[in-house]
C-alpha cells in the first residue's frame, strides 16, 4: 500500500486549490468543478481538494464542542519569517495561538491549520 495523496474538504475546491498553488508553487494535475489535485514539481504525493456541502471550518485550537481539525499540514521551510510573510501574501491568516517557538501555525482560507517549521540548528 502507498498513500497517493491527502484530501482537504472546502466550501470551494478550486478556490482552496488556488491558494495552495500560490503557497507551494505546485501545479494542477486534475481540475474538476468539485475536485482539484495538485502535484509537486518533482513528483511525489499530491494534495487534493474536494467541495463539501455544509463545510464547517475547524477551530484552532479547539475547545469542547468546537469543530475539530481532522488533519493539518506540516511544511518545512528554510526561513520561517520569509515563509510566514509568503503565506500571508498568498491568503493565509496567522493563527492567534502559537504553541511552539520554532513553528508558525497559519490558517488557510478554508480554516485548515498548517504549520511552517524549520530544521533545528546543529
From TrEMBL:
Family annotation (InterPro entries): Glyas_Bleomycin-R_OHBP_Dase, Glyoxalase_6, VOC_core
SUPFAM superfamilies on file: Glyoxalase/Bleomycin resistance protein/Dihydroxybiphenyl dioxygenase
Chain ranges of the VOC domain: 2-122
Gene3D superfamilies cross-referenced by the UniProt entry: 2,3-Dihydroxybiphenyl 1,2-Dioxygenase, domain 1
Official protein name in the record: Glyoxalase
Biological source species: Phytohabitans flavus
Amino acid at each position: 500500500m502507498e498513500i497517493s495523496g491527502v484530501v482537504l474538504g472546502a466550501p470551494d475546491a478550486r478556490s482552496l486549490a488556488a491558494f495552495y498553488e500560490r503557497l507551494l508553487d505546485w501545479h494542477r494535475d486534475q481540475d474538476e468543478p468539485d475536485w482539484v489535485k495538485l502535484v509537486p514539481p518533482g513528483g511525489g504525493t499530491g494534495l487534493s481538494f474536494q467541495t463539501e456541502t455544509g463545510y464547517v471550518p475547524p477551530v484552532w485550537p479547539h475547545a469542547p464542542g468546537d469543530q475539530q481539525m481532522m488533519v493539518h499540514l506540516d511544511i518545512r521551510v528554510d526561513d520561517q519569517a520569509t515563509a510566514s510573510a509568503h503565506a500571508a501574501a498568498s491568503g493565509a491568516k496567522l493563527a492567534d495561538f502559537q504553541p511552539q517557538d520554532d513553528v508558525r501555525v497559519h490558517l488557510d482560507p478554508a480554516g485548515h491549520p498548517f504549520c511552517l517549521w524549520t530544521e533545528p540548528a546543529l
